[in-house]
Amino acid sequence: MSDFEHGPFSRKLSAFITLSEAESAVLASLHQRRRKIAAGRDVFQQGQLGQAAYVLSAGWACSYKILQDGERQVVDFQVPGDFLGLRSVLLHVSDHSVVSVTDIEVSEVLLSDLLGVFERTPRLAAAVLWAASRDEAMVVEHLAGIGRRNAVERMAHFLLELGARLSLVGMGSRAGFDCPLTQYLLADALGLTAVHVNRVLRQLREEGLVAVKDGYVAFEDYERLTEFAGFDPAYLDQPGPLLK
Amino acid sequence: MSDFEHGPFSRKLSAFITLSEAESAVLASLHQRRRKIAAGRDVFQQGQLGQAAYVLSAGWACSYKILQDGERQVVDFQVPGDFLGLRSVLLHVSDHSVVSVTDIEVSEVLLSDLLGVFERTPRLAAAVLWAASRDEAMVVEHLAGIGRRNAVERMAHFLLELGARLSLVGMGSRAGFDCPLTQYLLADALGLTAVHVNRVLRQLREEGLVAVKDGYVAFEDYERLTEFAGFDPAYLDQPGPLLK
DNA sequence: CGCGGACTTGAAGGTATTCAACATGCGTGG
DNA sequence: CCACGCATGTTGAATACCTTCAAGTCCGCG
């Protein structure tokens, strides 16, 4: 049985462990409670008692925090195959909010489901922990970018990372990718103002590195952009399953 | 049997699950390979093939990334009970480095140990995943701070969070805590220069909020500082075990 | 005693923000 | 159908925050 039949989530996990039929079946059983959510709706909110997490099967979502003074910081964007709110389910109280950027489709995963999966198929526990680690690695890279890169490098690096992630699920290439993010969302992700995001994008465009226009990110000179941003995709790549 | 007998790691996990004797024994078995490391030594490095993670049992450590241009971003500091390199063991390649800030004591945990623990005691898998989630929540809060708080608020929030974490393991209070971090380390953690850290600390001292001097952080007005920094410890608190 | 690491302070400069104005495109209702 | 509102994108000018560069202090230690 192909690991790819059950959608992007199985596809993602199968990069870490080779899924047995039993394990595939257990994963498939997680997709019982499907929901469609329109663009711009909160999936869940910061502070909410969250017993459920979700697996995103279609569309883009965005996890963010609202600070005391009302400022928003986008922590990460989620694309198909990613978890929504995995931390929340384990922390009992959500430390962040998630909003749909486009129309999305999700499967609800209860804490009890997750614990059941862990007991019946411990290898899947490792796979889920791996997926969580990979997500955290991206958050950490994001942290480093905000802390230590200037606005232009930060944007360049961010666009390259997003492109690499999307390539892994067949939604992007070295040419570019469709991107539904507004300059406001980009600003809140990169710790900038929307005004400055605009200037930075102009600069990257004028230097012939990357052009963002009409919902499409076009890499005009992938090599030079990679060089400029100091982008190293090692933390995203998974050469093969670690557990056979 | 008290959950506290086996050191800060068991103490931390027992905030999430009530440990059975069998589970405590399994945890204790993880502390077979103990190592002492002098201050200022790398425990492991970014890019290294890391089969092993560590549990910190004494002292302070610091995880960081080095960017292309040589700039350092400190991701988090670790105090007793915290994991070192859990992500690395699951990602196979470490995405960050860890250095000892003080003399430290660690226990090595192999990937095979961890998988064994998951198979024998699935509830511990959940507990470990919870601990990882809690650590990630701190990284996310850190990200939000760097992205959306100015230098003074950022520093205030950081010191409050550190104080709260240390209080949980009995190493701090609302009065203050011992802190071995230099202004250079603080700068690299907060995405500032050491020079500006110095000015920010002076400002916080002059406003009677918090004073950092001779390795001790003294909260001079905890209430007002909390208010000023917009500090909400919800994501650190765990009212009681989620799994009995 | 001299050296290095950590800390401190001033002055100048650059990056990103703030404020303000305007352009563009899309959907909705008059 | 066109007017209008609203979200998004664009650009300029003034300002603020933080960095950079530079100089110097303090202290522990070989």
TrEMBL record, chains A, B:
One of its GO terms (molecular function) is DNA binding. It comes from the Bacteria. Residues 149-223 form the HTH crp-type domain. Keywords: DNA-binding, Transcription, Transcription regulation. The keyword Protein biosynthesis does not apply. Pfam families: cNMP_binding, HTH_Crp_2. Residues 15-101 form the Cyclic nucleotide-binding domain. InterPro entries: cNMP-bd_dom (IPR000595), cNMP-bd_dom_sf (IPR018490), HTH_CRP (IPR012318), RmlC-like_jellyroll (IPR014710), WH-like_DNA-bd_sf (IPR036388), WH_DNA-bd_sf (IPR036390). GO terms for biological process: regulation of DNA-templated transcription. Coiled coil: none annotated. This is Crp/Fnr family transcriptional regulator. It comes from Pacificispira spongiicola.
